[in-house]
Design goal:
This protein is mainly alpha-helical and 168 residues long. It has a domain of 79 residues. It is built from 7 helices and 4 strands; from the N terminus they run ααααββαααββ. The strands form 2 sheets. Strands 1-2 form a two-stranded antiparallel ribbon. Strands 3-4 form a two-stranded antiparallel sheet. The longest helix is centred in the N-terminal third of the chain and has 21 residues. The two termini are 30 Å apart. The mean pLDDT is 91.
């Protein structure tokens, strides 16, 4: 439990710093991921082995419910903005601008907490690219503008890279 709590607090700390770096209100860093302290999320996260090696079916199912709860209760997650329609399936809603910025601050804080670097290029090229097919087009446009503002450059098939003038 202590190991997860330390990592969670470290992530929140770095998100607060990222909020400051990119000009978001300080309070967003404070309330960011607050639901992770709720029992419905905290305990499944504590029991979950993030290496993916030693999770029983029960632990995995509990974690999946906690992760779903987290996504649906935190507006900075793009998954929050997916509408599941009874007749037309799932389609994306546009994220308000402040939550797109907070999502980027979240990614920056996670990168710093888990890799030691503010630069998110590895994550962007390996994970974020999978999200784009599920996001609203205006959200993607806003996201790319933010990333460019922070010094990230998209180079087509070569993916993302950090320019020398970025805030990362």
């Amino acid at each position: 439990m202590k190991k997860y709590l330390v990592k969670l607090l470290q992530h929140k700390w770095y998100v607060m710093i990222a909020c400051r770096k990119i000009g978001l209100p300080f309070y967003l860093g404070i309330i960011h991921d607050w639901s992770k302290f709720l029992r419905v999320e905290f305990m499944p996260y504590v029991r979950y082995d993030f290496s993916g090696k030693d999770n029983s079916a029960e632990v995995q199912a509990d974690f999946d419910l906690a992760w779903n709860h987290h996504q649906k209760h935190n507006k900075h997650h793009w998954q929050y903005w997916l509408l599941i329609n009874d007749t037309d399936g799932t389609y994306p809603l546009e994220m308000p601008r402040k939550y797109v910025w907070e999502m980027v601050a979240d990614w920056m804080g996670a990168s710093r907490a888990y890799t030691g670097s503010w630069c998110m290029v590895f994550w962007m090229n390996s994970v974020m690219v999978n999200y784009l097919d599920h996001m609203h087009q205006e959200t993607i446009s806003e996201l790319f503008m933010i990333l460019h503002t922070l010094g990230y450059v998209y180079n087509g098939h070569d993916g993302w890279y950090c320019s020398d003038h970025g805030l990362h």
